[in-house]
Design a protein that fits this description.
Helix content is 37%, strand content 13%. It has helices spanning 3-87, 129-139, 167-176, 184-192, and strands at residues 89-92, 95-99, 113-117, 120-123, 242-248, 271-274, 290-293, 302-304, 307-309.
Amino acid sequence: MEDWTYGLIIVVCGIAWVHIFVDYRRKLMRVMPGVEQVAARKREFSTQISEAQNNSDHIVHSIGDLQHEIESLDEKRAEMQKKLNEAEMILIPPGKFDMGSNIAGKEDENPEHKITLKGYYIDKFEVTNMQYKDFIDVTDRRPPIHWRSRTFPDPRAGNHPVVNITWNDTEAYAAWIGKRLPTEAEWERAARGDHGNEYPWGKSCSPDFTNFATPDGSTSPIDKYPRGVSEHKVWDMCGNVGEWVQDWYDAKYYTRTPEANPMGPENGHQRIYRGGGYHCLRMDIRCAARHFTLPTSSQMYIGFRCAMDAD
């Protein structure tokens, strides 16, 4: 091959290489600003992530401080509530009473039997709408189903007993406030006293003593009937609303009840409420009358009051 041919090949290759190099430089110059922008954005994101992490650490620390403060406040609330509990409750001293009845046709009340109880406290009044509202406001628990905007519908009913609450709701409230539900025996003794009263106030019954026999009626203020106070000075034990108690229901339980401090059956399907309500007739608001329903049930005529051990 001639020398000029080699020379021509070399020249052509050189031109091609120069063309490739120039094209590469041109493309590189177009890419470089994008690379620099990506690097800048990466640095910006890194700075933002670092700042966010610092802010997150600060927020977590602040949340921890708030949680600690809330726990401290709740401990103080519990201490204050414990002192308040006794002030708003009635001390029922240790003693004996006759529980149940021998009335024919009321087999779940039979037989009347002697029970011994240790001392305990019981609420002087039924738990009110206003008291229960404090509970749901603090705990964010579901309100009674007939409330609107998380408050009782009638603003004048703050001093009426709360209703439409399940047995489980009452357990939660009692635990929150440092109390418990009364046993069925504790409830009955506080209602009928130690002398076998048929009603908290005595042997006879009339509208002067409590809110009853009004099927289309409603609740009344917890302190409306001073003549209906029990021997132990507990208000509204019968009538107005029925009251959830601790025990499971068993129609035959009285045939085998322990003589001292009965706690009710170990299990069951339905819970007991006592005292009847505004819709009941006089036979159903007697101190010995027993009522029962599912613990998940809520009714416009069932409320509750709390109890507490006496140290």
